[in-house]
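Q: what sequence does this backbone want?
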């Protein structure tokens, strides 16, 4: 897969603004110590703090040129968790909005060492965790725009499955491939002892996969991130191939 996003990077900045409002709104609807079922071991307050920390890590990765070793990981005295989140985002946007998305920026995915990578990554980070907090708070899960969900599917397969797993030294036990289909888009994710790879493909090529998973863009997006169960998607073919994809993605995205 290409390291290029499927949509304009301006959409990611727009999405960041929208998703932060949804995230903080949901967080205010529940006590901060409310458990988050989608992120075992986390509370609502900890998710908000985590996202605020990720914004700081991203900005420092860009400005320092390498993975940061230290950053402000907690609110300062007198600062609320929401303020910590918002100041982290403001500082990050100060970097992202003053550089061309195609300009070089250090990062962890060699296929896309650009400012655009970080706009894309932070938009999806915020979107996924927003659904986590909405679920924990017991409020309706706001729909994810189709273009964002489709791009998110591409990102989790190309960057997290195709790159993150090899970085961690993890692979499939047997070579299996799964086609992922939604809204006219198709990908193949193949893993085995010798390779872990994903790519955008034709519908005809997908027929050669061991299994096929399909549903709406939002359902597939959340399924790949482990936020909804197998009931949310339709699948056909070898169940072991799907089980391996699911297990590997849980390791890649934890």
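A:
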């Amino acid at each position: 897969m290409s390291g290029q996003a499927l949509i304009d990077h301006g959409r990611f900045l727009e999405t960041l603004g929208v998703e932060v409002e949804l995230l903080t709104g949901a967080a205010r609807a529940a006590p901060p110590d409310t458990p988050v079922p989608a992120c075992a071991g986390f509370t609502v307050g900890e998710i908000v703090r985590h996202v605020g920390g990720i914004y700081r890590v991203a900005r420092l990765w860009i400005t320092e040129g390498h993975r940061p070793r230290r950053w402000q990981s907690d609110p300062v005295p007198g600062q609320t968790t929401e303020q910590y989140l918002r100041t982290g985002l403001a500082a990050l946007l100060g970097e992202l909005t003053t550089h061309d998305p195609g300009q070089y920026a250090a990062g962890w995915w060699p296929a896309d060492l650009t400012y655009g990578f970080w706009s894309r990554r932070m938009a999806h980070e915020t979107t996924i965790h927003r659904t986590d907090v909405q679920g924990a708070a017991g409020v309706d899960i706001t729909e994810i725009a189709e273009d964002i969900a489709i791009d998110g599917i591409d990102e989790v397969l190309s960057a997290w499955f195709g790159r993150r797993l090899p970085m961690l030294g993890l692979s499939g036990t047997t070579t299996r491939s799964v086609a992922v289909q939604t809204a006219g888009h198709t990908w193949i994710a193949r893993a085995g002892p010798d390779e872990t790879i994903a790519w955008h493909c034709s519908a005809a090529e997908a027929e050669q996969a061991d299994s096929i998973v399909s549903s709406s863009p939002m359902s597939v997006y959340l399924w790949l991130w482990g936020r909804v169960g197998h009931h949310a998607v339709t699948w056909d073919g070898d169940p072991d191939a799907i089980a391996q994809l699911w297990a590997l993605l849980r390791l890649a995205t934890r």
